[in-house]
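Record type: ASSEMBLY
Status: queued
Input:
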Amino acid sequence: MQEWIDLLMVLVAVTNLAILGVSRLRTCIRLSAIQGALLGCLPLMVGPLESWGPILLALVTIAMKGWTLPWLLERSLVEAHVQREVQPFVGYNASILIGVIAIAASFWLNSRLPLPFTPAGTLMIPSAFFGVLTGLFILVARRIALNQVIGYLVLENGIYAFGLVLMPHQTLLVELGILLDLFVGVFVMGIAIFQINREFDHIDADRMTGLRDWSDE
Amino acid sequence: MIAILSSILSVVLALVLAPLLLGVVNRTKAIYAGRKGQPLLQLYYDLYRLLRKGAVYSRTTSWIFRAGPIVGLAATALAIPLIPFGGGRGLFSFAGDFFFAVYLLGVVRFLWVIAALDTGSSFEGMGGSREVAFSALAEPALLLALTAVAWMTRSLSLSDMVGRLSWTLGPGVAPIAMVGCTLFVVFLAENARIPVDDPNTHLELTMIHEVMVLDHSGPDFAMIQYTAALKFWLLGAILIGVLLPFETLPTTVRWPVALGGMFTLAILVGIVESTMARLRLLKVPQLLGGACALAIFALILVVR
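Status: finished
Output:
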């Protein structure tokens, strides 16, 4: 089972790399959906299968991360008439390079991290760190608000994978945490994107720096 | 004795069958497009025709222009015996010979580029500049991928690296798959295949490899075409050697599997060429950068 978990975590890390290097917004959304679906399978491998908890969690996660959130994003992509290009502040090749550095950093962090128990897969923690770092990087390095939402999703996926490391020990707590997370995620994302779409014709975060409720004068 | 004979046989096969592979690629593309296509042996006919012709040399060129094709063919032919084929060993091998093989290909590229610059044509200079720009990205990808393979097999010689990996589940599969992807991208880029360069475009401003060899004619051009076919075989042999677990196969099927792998690869290249468009020039570094990133990731996975 450990081999399968590691293989899955490698696939997740590869989707992260691809999100960094891809230039189409729609492809980014699809990749985040694939990543969500992959991570949705993780509780089935990590958790104790005697109870219904992990199965339910997997179903909810796949439905949310693999379907609902990407669907919301795609819808707002169509409605907001944003450009299909990602419009990065940091170029694609530089992004991929930073991604590779982030992978190395994640493995280093993993080697420095004392754990009270051995995780179910040796790659779970590095891959989770890499997801978090990728998400943070996308949040600051992309211009379009929709893409920053994808960055937030990737970041959240990393945190989710990290939480699942604890799953065999604190099953109920982890499940509740993840479900709450998803619930809040859907609401925040849905409302945020909807509001941005309605209030402004564009969702270019760079131009929002001009928005102020007080004046400088 | 049998080992040496099989090594010699693999070299002979490479020298004889390499042009046939390009024929298979062209035939696949023709079938995809609903054409009948040129004969499978077309490249042999071309080589024969070109060898009977005389060469034309521009008065602005020097000996560099004439040396380019000769040294290119010699360097590639020197790299061929290093590559093991069909689960055997290369004809000769030493520790670190994968660096030697990669940089023999580098020598070929260097000579072709300076021969192109030697003609004084700005068009060829442009092709040379593109060639160098892209291979500067393809070379680290190839070396990193081979380094990952070297680490997995704990050896520095191509004879012990290629064909020695097995698909055991677990830490093995992901790095092998990633190295395979990287090598395939490098294979397409180095052989001027479609996502990077289109071998069918002549006299267009988008081409890379073809433009460098425009001024070569007769036997020189035959040597360049043959070298390109050998390079196709060489990188293809490395790719299928990394992907297929020859060690675990019984001895009798290793050769058929290896040859079948090469022809499948040629068909795959034909399918890629028929179904994909050439990438914009600006996107090519992105593709090669992604291949590099995959190779580094594989290296990190196997080293940790």
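Annotation: Residues 17 and 99 of chain A are 6 Å apart (CA to CA).
Annotation: Chain A is about 75% helix and 0% strand.
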